[in-house]
Design brief:
One of its GO terms (molecular function) is translation elongation factor activity. This protein has about 290 residues and is α+β, with helices and mostly antiparallel strands. The strands form 3 sheets. It has a 3-stranded antiparallel β-sheet. Strands 4-5-8 form a 3-stranded antiparallel β-sheet. Strands 6-7 form a two-stranded antiparallel sheet.
Length: about 290
Amino acid sequence: MAVTPQLIKELREMTSAGMMDCKKALEATNGNIEEAVVWLRENGLAKAAKKADRVAAEGVSFAKANGNRAIIFEVNSETDFVSKNDKFMSLIENIGNALLESNATSLEEALEVKLASGQTISEACVEATATIGEKIELRRIAAVEGSKLSIYNHANHRISVLLNFDGNISDEDAYNVSMHVAAMSPKYLTESEVPQEFKDQEMHIIKETTDLAGKPENVAENILKGKLNKKIAEITLLDQGFVMDEKQTVGNFVKSKGSSIKQMFRFEVGEGIEKVTTDFAAEVAAQLAGN
């Protein structure tokens, strides 16, 4: 059967694959559209497998809540252009809905959660990798159950926050604290969560950069402790000055509302991933040579 523009258009609408890929699939299957769909899937998965070792450090972070359950997750891609792709954002929405309705609390469990389509999240990410042409993967997830939950998603889809409160804080006040977390990027909820290794490293730096010449030992010790406590306060949520009222700490603000914060999650896309600088021109040339 002849491969016509109409057949290519029909296959593209069915699969969302690229026009040239649709043409190749139809040519390889003598214009049989059902076999072409299978060809695209098989070849797409093969291409996806080749991308498995590539670094995906862009993408979307998203938090979602329903009643007493909330989830926060990050899905990565190789470039930030993908976050503007309708197919990718549809996948994010589907993943969020499925995770919220599931009992998954870990990445391993989340990858096996089934979407409305019947695919697992893991399978959907592999298929998206094949269709979109970039490595797509669910990187991390946290799930919380509580009587007072608050979420915040920044407009750029790169930062999301999930807080679990204990007490009767209002929705507005809880949301303002969530926005504070997004803006001020605390690494820990309380001072007790800060690793001793971090404290030791900071104290070493402080000693090396502080002039204590002529200071009595007790005075010098208090100066060092004061500097360390200030540094720790900068990275712990409850000790940070509240952006809505800098006269009090976040901890004092929440306490004044008859509440406390039990859990804090802040996801920012790509944090902790070592990005690889790519020579785009060389990569394109290599792909063309491979074709």
